[in-house]
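Morning!

This is the sequence you dropped in the shared folder:
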Amino acid sequence: MRIMGLDYGSVTVGVAISDPLLLTAQGIEVIHRKQENKLRRTLARIDELIKEYDVAKIVVGYPKHMNNSIGERAAKSEEFADILRKRTNLEVILWDERLTTAAANQVLSESSMNCKEKGLVIDKIAAVFILQGYLDKLYNIKNKSIDG
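The structure's back. Tokens below.
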């Protein structure tokens, strides 16, 4: 069993997958679409990845504002999560992704990639940060219950 992390954007979806032990997240790919509301191919690709990696749960980045309010992007993530729940019958969790894109940009700024190369992978890196944050929480909860 694995967990899938998704960074849902207006024309891309960054995808990350956990290892089978649910300890680490690895970036898999970025799914591109021509228009925001055209999700058929995006959802079909997500279905393929769910089967390929034996995914049991999906974590979708939830881009709340710094003051914890919900804006347009967060509302679109909620809609996307609802579509995924209905389509896959899997548990879909919205995970606070504040600052994940900034963290991904920081990591990429330290690399030797040019701007075009960074643009091709930023969403995948953001998906890794989203999923890794969720996995770290799971690990901490598990260890607290063992320790205490």
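Headline: The radius of gyration is 15 Å.

More detail when I'm at my desk.
O.
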